[in-house]
């Protein structure tokens, strides 16, 4: 609902916080039965979920105690949100910035009155410019922007606050990466330091909304089942107890002292050296054997849990409405290769991970492929025209790979990656090194489709025409579409 302005500059058509739908009231999808190995750091809490609102609309129409104004160090940036805020607030806000506030450092926040705005306060904050070379510093600055805004809200006893995305598009911050920081910072604040704050409204555009809905599940699970699913899909860095990004390379493990301060006084240098040498000796063999047995038992338990999860995926697929997944035509069978092995094609550009229910997709794809991978097969992944937001989270891919039935790994004979980027090659190296070493010998990169057609007969190879067109642009050759490939067959 757009706001109009009366002759005094005050916004009309105002929206009460009470009419907004909270995250607690949103629809929770069905999830497979997952038994996490330990407690999730972001537990299901209906009271916290009732305080979060994801909303698309005009921030100046909200009747809240405070709104956040994302800006630059001089408080002079003029994005559409800034322009609307200053237009409604009137010249007094400009005067406050000029005479009272002055400048604001990156990561900091400052408060002013709202004047003609329906909000009592405006909290001005400066997000960082995105630079992947200094990623740790950039992420930390973004965290401080959100947290300092919330701390000011707490200081002034604010009960409701509206926050647009602080990681401004003009500053180049990827939406998904910024969303992780925003959501977990809000979650941690509501957990530990919110005494008066009753509502946090995150103001999003349509694209941001889809991304935030997908990621909010990780930090604000709406059921015990969703909490278990979220735990398996959390990113590696979930921040500290306040949501602040952590840097593993700078973490120092401080071991417990073996002796107390009084005993230390009686130790000579030679005593200390002897004690350290003794402490490095091999432990008791019975203890080592016990630990080995426990390790094997834990591995067996994990395999059983993965098998149970995979069977749940198969069962879940029979109950889901998967028409939206089928329409994507991202995964399908494309004939056989020169050795008669089934060819499975996955087209990255056809799979908008940030807009897709990943749990539904993997259940459906596992159900379709279950019979086919009983025999030898090869897989082809097309990275052509795929961007960062279309890729599923790395932790999700790790979970999927570890959960797939062992026959997927055993019967896969070759995995071709077409038109890989440098980033993708690095990602696969990391994945093969730490998660799937058995995949490394089967992985082959294909920069030109003519090389792929050496392994697969043309009359068996079916991909969309635009992939051939892009290959021609990239490599300058005229690889043509096989007649049989005009329409990919569904699995």
Q: Can you summarize this structure?
A:
With 491 residues, the chain is an alpha/beta fold. It contains 17 helices and 13 strands. It folds into two domains: 219 residues, Leucine Aminopeptidase, subunit E, domain 1; 163 residues, 3-Layer(aba) Sandwich (Phosphatidylinositol Transfer Protein Sec14p).
Structure description:
With 491 residues, the chain is α/β, with parallel strands linked by helices. It has 2 domains: 219 residues, Leucine Aminopeptidase, subunit E, domain 1; 163 residues, Phosphatidylinositol Transfer Protein Sec14p, CATH 3.40.525.10. Helices cover 41% and strands 13% of the residues. Strands 2-8-7-4-6-5 form a 6-stranded mixed β-sheet, with helices on both faces. A 5-stranded mixed β-sheet has the order 9-10-11-12-13. The protein has a two-stranded parallel ribbon with strand order 1-3. β10, α12 and β11 form a beta-alpha-beta unit. The longest helix has 33 residues. The radius of gyration is 27 Å and the shape is elongated. The two termini are 45 Å apart. The C terminus is likely disordered. Belongs to the GDAP2 family. Pfam families: CRAL_TRIO_2, Macro. This is Macro domain-containing protein.
